Amino acid sequence: ETGVTQTPRHLVMGMTNKKSLKCEQHLGHNAMYWYKQSAKKPLELMFVYSLEERVENNSVPSRFSPECPNSSHLFLHLHTLQPEDSALYLCASSQEAGAEKLFFGSGTQLSVL
Amino acid sequence: GESVGLHLPTLSVQEGDNSIINCAYSNSASDYFIWYKQESGKGPQFIIDIRSNMDKRQGQRVTVLLNKTVKHLSLQIAATQPGDSAVYFCAEKMAGTYKYIFGTGTRLKVLA
């Protein structure tokens, strides 16, 4: 158990669906992140939140909408996704934004049909 | 451009032998490096890290070596065990930034 919990573990959705990914960290950290992991590609940073404020949006399409209601919870709202968005979406947290050690959740494996 | 790469996509090692996983980086301004292990169906798990003012750091059965002259990072696993089978990837980071640059990963297979 890494202290970062993601739900659901698996998600299949059509291109017209709306769904949300949830992340919760139990580590008392102040920063949370969304990463995308595609097959045979390096981890890609999507968003960074520091104390519920978004501090980084790494050129992510608007069909991905993050939400951070408090420092322990992070959501990724999905709408009108494309098949190429199918990937493992990983949530991570760190003590502070930009701190060196990231703690990852187990991810949500997303398939867009 | 900035990149972190791995020399071998798959490494097969006999159980009990030592493993060496290599990583090349191109950003000389990076001052922090980290190795993660990712097992099937799980998220990346921290293994060991090293700052640029060091050239070697040891943990439990693992050692990270940093050669800044040739921009090379390696992870050594002593007495490799079946539980070490996973994908290993390195990452680099510059101080004051949020973004890690991750490698694509090397799959380690431990043969019984």
Task: Describe, in plain words, how this protein is organized in 3D.
The complex is a heterodimer of chains A (113) and B (112). Chain A contains no helices and 11 strands. With 113 residues, chain A is mainly beta. Chain A starts with a strand and ends with a strand. The mean pLDDT of chain A is 93. Chain B has 112 residues and is mostly beta strands. Chain B is 0% helix and 54% strand. Chain B has strands at residues 4-5, 10-14, 19-25, 32-38, 45-51, 56-58, 62-67, 72-77, 86-93, 100-102, 106-111. In chain B, strand 6 (56-58) and strand 7 form a beta hairpin. Classes of the chains: A mainly beta (113), B mainly beta (112). The interface between A and B is medium-sized, with 25 and 24 residues.
CA(first)-CA(last) distance of chain B: 40 Å
Instruction: Determine the mean pLDDT of chain A.
Output: 93
What spatial form of chain A do the alpha-carbon principal axes imply? globular
Low-pLDDT ranges of chain A: none
Derived from helix and strand composition plus strand pairing, the structural class of chain A reads: mainly beta
| Alpha-beta content class of chain B | mainly beta
Multimerization status? heterodimer
| Series of H and E elements of chain A | EEEEEEEEEEE
SSE order of chain B: EEEEEEEEEEE
Put simply, the count of helices of chain B is 0
Helix share of residues of chain A? under 10%
Strand content of chain B: over 45%
* Cα-based radius of gyration of chain A, to the nearest Å: 13 Å
- Average pLDDT confidence of chain B is 90
What does the overall shape of chain B look like?
globular
Low-pLDDT runs of chain B = none
